[in-house]
Specification:
Elements: E1 2-10, H1 16-24, E2 35-40, E3 51-57, H2 60-68, H3 70-83, E4 84-93
Length: 95
């Protein structure tokens, strides 16, 4: 199994709840996703990011397919690229 984790810092004025809704909308739509978790930061410290996405996938083939999925690309990535200030990601294997 693989965990794909992305943290987003959103542009000023962008709704974090709407961002979380868009990310969570992949559930049941993008077939490679085995589990999805979306969270909104409540601390809002200087080093905080605003929203986190954690997706569980079977393997690297599924991760590649997820990255190319039409809904992920045309809806989610389009929204995130237009509304994020920055993001960081990590992909790792789960034992």
């Amino acid at each position: 199994m693989i965990k794909h984790v992305v943290m987003f810092k959103m542009k000023e004025g962008v709704s974090k709840k709407e961002t979380a809704r868009v990310l969570k909308s992949m559930e049941g739509v993008v077939p490679q996703i085995r589990d999805i978790e979306v969270g909104i930061d409540f601390l809002q410290s200087e080093r905080s990011f605003d929203v986190i996405l954690t997706v569980t996938l079977d393997d690297e083939v599924a991760l590649d397919a997820y990255q190319k999925d039409p809904y992920h690309c045309d809806v989610v990535k389009k929204f995130m690229h237009a509304n994020r200030q920055s993001s960081v990601a990590v992909d790792y294997y789960v034992d």
